[in-house]
Amino acid sequence: MLTIRLFRYVGQPFLLYWKDMENVMEHTVALEVSYDGAPFSGFARQPGQLTVQGSIEDALALLYGRPVETTCAGRTDAGVHARGQVVSFDLSGDEFASRPLSALSRSLNALIDDRASVKRIGEASFGFSARFDAVSREYRYFIYEGADRPVLVSDRVWHLKRRLDIQAMAEGASYLVGEHDFKSFCMAVSAEGKPTCRNVSEITIGREELLGEEVAVVKVIGNAFLHSMVRTIVGTLVAVGTGRREPSWVGEVLEARDRRAAGENAPAAGLVFWHVDYGDAVSAPMRKEGNRV
Question: Which residues are CB-contacts of 123 (< 8 A; sequence separation ≥ 6)?
């Protein structure tokens, strides 16, 4: 049976023709994607906006002549960067056989916005979901402490003009480790009528070099995160690190279950979606672009 569908690509409608029997999905492909979040209106596709998902799906539509829906490990907000975002999508047997995965990776990198890059590609178990099969997600937040302007890293950090007490921050962070109701740490509108319990397995704060500049780094690992949760955690911990609040206040914020009780929402520029752990969910390791798959 021939199916005719109308699909809009780069603002222009055109007709897609294909036989249903030839497009039974049989393979799942996983991509590891990095991107500079500054030019994007977040990951998720939005009409009339430049987004990471929109760029990837437009490229896949051009390659396969049909709309290809993708799933990501975590939908980052506007301005948030990614080092290890994972994206999955399904292909039919014929589509999967039409080009090696290494060639698909090269084609995607040629077509997607040049502020994003497919770093690795591989076939996962059929039905694998980048979102639902994730065991844990890791974010890292970068803070520059100093009066001078960090010109080489200014688009990757939150610039604070005073040095933070990271020991006090670590003490405050200890209240957040474990399974809790994090309603105080997400946008109030997004929490309405939705479960807000999450399990945070690790929060560590330390210092390292970024392009020769010393920066404070807040690493947060959890099973899943609410909207703006990591940025609110960082903003709350910075209130402790600057001495405006005691470490025990973080526990009070958690118990309040009210966004107004927490600290400010840290700027998006300092946040990087760092890594996703899938345990044994992916049947074969993703390969670096250029390797034969």
Answer: 27, 28, 29, 30, 96, 101, 283, 284, 293
Tell me how far apart the alpha carbons of residues 79 and 25 are, in angstroms, rounded to a whole number. 34
Q: Are strands 271-277 and 287-288 parallel, antiparallel or unpaired?
A: unpaired
The DSSP code sequence of 140-199 is EEEEEESSS--TTTGGGSEEESS---HHHHHHHHTTTSEEEE-GGGS-HHHHTTS--EEE
Which two structure tokens, joined as six digits, stand for 262? 């927490």
**Residues labelled catalytic:** 77
3-state SS class at 237? helix
Q: List, for residues 145-158, the tens digit of each pLDDT value.
A: 999 999 999 999 99
Specify which residues 159 forms β-bridges with.
144
Give Cα separations from 27 to 108, 210, 247, 291 (angstroms): 18, 39, 49, 19
User: Which pTM was predicted?
Assistant: 0.88
Angle subtended at Cα 45 by Cα 39 and Cα 49, rounded to the nearest 5 degrees: 45
Q: Could you please report the per-residue DSSP string of 55-96?
A: HHHHHHHHHHSS----EES--PPTT-EEEEEEEEEEEEHHHH
Nearest to 232 by CA among 202, 203, 264: 264
Confidence of residue 279 (pLDDT cuts 50, 70, 90): confident
Residue 82 contacts residue 115 (beta carbons within 8 Å):
no
Instruction: Note the pLDDT tens digit of each residue in 155-191.
Output: 999 999 999 999 999 999 999 999 999 999 998 776 6
CA distance 281 to 265: 33
Query: How do residues 63-89 score in pLDDT, each as one tens digit?
Result: 999 999 999 999 999 999 999 999 999
